[in-house]
Write a structure and sequence with these properties.
Layout lengths: L1 H8 L2 H35 L5 H31 L4 H18 L1 H16 L7 E4 L2 E8 L3 E5 L5 E5 L6 E3 L5 E9 L5 H16 L13 E8 L4 E9 L4 H19 L16
Antiparallel strand pairs: 1-2, 1-5, 2-3, 3-4, 6-8, 7-8
Length: 277
């Protein structure tokens, strides 16, 4: 009943102003999002470096969140004024609390400073595949306080910027598709290396991968002596984000070609003997 009495006491002009303020808030938020999207799309088209587009995407998200927050605050203050609430004490209290939190909250300051450094240095961009705090995933969202990573299993990881001590960026500039090929000790290593190079060259000239592989296959040589096999290391230089696709495609062709040529890929075998006594 108190709420009904309160609503009845309001003048129609006040109610209409509140409705218009809410509508303004909704429209303004959408306009900001649309405007920023179109603005940064034009900027990205003029950018010479394709990798810089990730920086623009990250900056766009942060600017949208910042502007939306300011619009929401102004709308909230206007509605409170229309309802007859004196906002000056609220603003004063918020300012005092904000200063106290700003000076007293070490975590908040660390997150803010770290976020600014990460943003302006371009260490992480939306769309990058990175490893932070032993978590690997695609950067789905980034603000001045947190980074959201989406791992390959679909899990979302929220990491405070202040916790970011080291970043491993797998999609910065270019990538290497590193492949380990294990063969039996009895195989002719020189012949195996020639086969690997031929498979790599064939893959590089396939229509699906010719634009993703940016250099010839590098066979780095015999890398490991294992219990039942030896490992040969090879790699492709690729465009960012394609190193895993190239590795999977190359592994498939290695398996098919080795089977065709009779080159043995060893595997651990477990022998069980039964005692009949």
């Amino acid at each position: 009943m108190d709420i009904l009495n309160f609503l009845e006491s309001l003048r129609w002009g006040v109610i209409l102003n509140i409705v218009f303020t809410v509508l303004f808030l909704i429209v303004a938020l959408r306009l900001v999002k649309t405007f920023m999207f179109r603005l940064f799309e034009r900027i990205k088209k003029r950018a010479r470096d394709p990798e810089s587009t990730k920086n623009f995407d990250t900056l766009r998200v942060i600017l949208i969140h910042g502007i939306n927050f300011i619009i929401f605050i102004f709308a909230a203050i206007n509605i409170l004024n229309l309802l007859g609430v004196d906002v000056r004490p609220i603003i004063t209290a918020a300012g005092v609390v904000g200063v106290a939190v700003g000076f007293g909250s070490k975590r908040f300051v660390e997150d803010l400073i770290s976020g600014l450094i990460i943003l302006f240095e371009g260490q992480i961009r939306v769309g990058d595949v990175v490893e932070i705090q032993n978590v690997t995933g695609t950067v789905e969202k980034m603000t001045l306080s947190i980074i959201v990573l989406r791992s390959i299993d679909g899990a979302a990881h929220f990491i405070r910027n202040g916790m970011v001590d080291m970043v491993t960026n797998y999609t910065r500039g270019f990538s290497y598709s590193l492949v380990e090929i294990s063969v039996a000790y009895k195989e002719d290593i020189a012949h195996v290396i020639d086969v690997i190079k031929k498979i790599g060259e064939d893959l590089r000239h396939e229509e699906e991968y010719r634009d993703k592989i940016t250099g010839e296959i590098e066979v780095l040589g015999l890398d490991k002596f294992n219990d039942s096999s030896i490992t040969i290391l090879a790699r492709f230089r690729t465009l960012p984000r394609y190193q895993w696709d190239i590795k999977r495609a190359f592994n498939l062709r290695i398996k098919e070609k080795f089977d065709e040529l009779g080159i043995e890929i060893p595997f651990n075998q477990l022998v069980i003997t039964e005692n009949k006594n």
